[in-house]
Amino acid sequence: MIATVLGIAALALILFFAGRYIYKEKKKGNHCIGCPYADSCPKHGYGGNCKQ
């Protein structure tokens, strides 16, 4: 019982922090979250796709 509650709490924390990270990155204007070139991608200015 306690292991289940701890597992659910850990999963909830992981989801919370992942959501918060995505929210902050979108607020900064990053469209390709997780891309190492997100800040300097030349395709952003032309509305292109970031997949290289």
Give the SSE string.
Answer: H
Helical percentage? 40-55%
Task: Tell me the total number of β-strands.
Answer: 0
Query: Span between N and C termini?
Result: 47 Å
What's the quaternary structure here?
A: single chain
Q: What is the count of distinct domains?
A: 1
Question: Could you tell me the radius of gyration in angstroms?
Answer: 16 Å
Estimated structural class: mainly alpha
Mean pLDDT: 81
The best one-word shape is rod-shaped
Please summarize the sheet with the most strands: none
Percent of residues in beta strands: under 5%
Number of helical runs? 1
Which stretches are poorly predicted, pLDDT < 50 over at least 5 residues?
A: none
Based on the model shown, name its key terms.
52 residues, mainly alpha, 1 helix, rod-shaped
Task: Give a written overview of the molecule.
The protein has 52 residues and is mostly helical. The protein has one domain. The protein contains 1 helix and no strands. The N and C termini lie far apart (47 Å).
Question: Which helices and strands appear, and what pairs or packs with what?
Answer:
Layout: H1 2-28
Question: Brief overview, please?
Answer:
The protein has 52 residues and is an all-alpha fold. Helix content is 52%, strand content 0%. The longest helix is centred in the N-terminal third of the chain and has 27 residues, at 2-28.
